[in-house]
């Protein structure tokens, strides 16, 4: 099953390259296909390098959630319909380029966070502290408390800017913001339980990195 998914992502990346190389109206969708397939493949690859013990079929994040798959499907439908009804909307190259830069920045930031965290990174929020679990505050974690979420947030919005999907840009921004707000609060409760005052001090010094998200509130 791992080989099948890896081959599928490689095939999708190849198709994206073919579309990107042409001058058709689907060129920007080719950029999107390359970005999407590379994101999911690299999630598995970096997990294999960093934390092989947690590696599984789910590390591709292809089956992240029903809502995630629905969001992807919605973006494809919007792109196709608007391409038919408003073809000029899908030919704004400078806007698609901005989206591509957002995608590259977001994915690079997320992978940098995963590599910096090493074996401390896991796709699933941990409820029990392992012997090797340490609080990482260096590298990109010195910029943001949750750089992997910041990267994913801007990557997801960037994919829709790339596709020039105005409806999904708004929808992705709202849905992603709500998801990461809840995820960060859940995770910070665990981190406070694991590291106590050490994490609280880190929390006071370093922002979450996401707009209007401060993390879990602590009563002093």
UniProtKB/TrEMBL annotation:
GO MF annotations in UniProt: protein C-terminal S-isoprenylcysteine carboxyl O-methyltransferase activity
PROSITE patterns: SAM_ICMT (PS51564)
Annotated Pfam families: ICMT
Parts of the chain that traverse the membrane: 152-175
GO biological process: methylation
Domain of life per record: Eukaryota
Example of a GO cellular component annotation carried by this entry: endoplasmic reticulum membrane
Membrane disposition: Multi-pass membrane protein
Keywords: Endoplasmic reticulum, Membrane, Methyltransferase, S-adenosyl-L-methionine, Transferase, Transmembrane, Transmembrane helix
Transmembrane listed as a keyword: yes
EC main group: transferase
InterPro entries on file: ICMT_MeTrfase (IPR007269), PPMT_MeTrfase (IPR025770)
Subcellular location: Endoplasmic reticulum membrane
Catalytic activity: [protein]-C-terminal S-[(2E,6E)-farnesyl]-L-cysteine + S-adenosyl-L-methionine = [protein]-C-terminal S-[(2E,6E)-farnesyl]-L-cysteine methyl ester + S-adenosyl-L-homocysteine
EC number(s) reported in the record: 2.1.1.100
Family: Belongs to the class VI-like SAM-binding methyltransferase superfamily. Isoprenylcysteine carboxyl methyltransferase family.
Annotated function: Catalyzes the post-translational methylation of isoprenylated C-terminal cysteine residues.
Protein name: Protein-S-isoprenylcysteine O-methyltransferase
Encoding gene per record: Icmt
């Amino acid at each position: 099953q791992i080989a099948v998914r890896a081959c599928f992502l490689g095939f999708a990346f190849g198709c994206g390259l073919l579309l990107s190389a042409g001058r058709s109206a689907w060129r920007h969708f080719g950029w999107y296909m390359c970005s999407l397939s590379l994101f999911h493949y690299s999630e598995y690859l970096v997990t294999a390098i960093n934390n092989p013990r947690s590696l599984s079929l789910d590390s591709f994040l292809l089956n992240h959630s029903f809502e995630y798959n629905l969001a992807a499907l919605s973006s494809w439908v919007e792109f196709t319909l608007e391409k038919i009804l408003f073809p000029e909307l899908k030919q704004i190259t400078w806007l698609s380029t901005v989206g591509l830069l957002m995608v590259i920045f977001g994915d690079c930031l997320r992978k940098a966070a995963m590599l910096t965290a090493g074996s401390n990174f896991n796709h699933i929020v941990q409820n029990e502290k392992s012997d090797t679990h340490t609080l990482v505050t260096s590298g990109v974690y010195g910029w943001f408390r949750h750089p992997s979420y910041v990267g994913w947030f801007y990557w997801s919005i960037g994919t829709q800017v790339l596709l020039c999907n105005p409806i999904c840009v708004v929808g992705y921004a709202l849905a992603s913001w709500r998801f990461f707000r809840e995820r960060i609060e859940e995770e910070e409760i665990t981190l406070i339980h694991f590291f106590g005052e050490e994490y609280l001090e880190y929390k006071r010094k370093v922002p979450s990195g996401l707009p209007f998200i401060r993390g879990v509130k602590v009563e002093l």
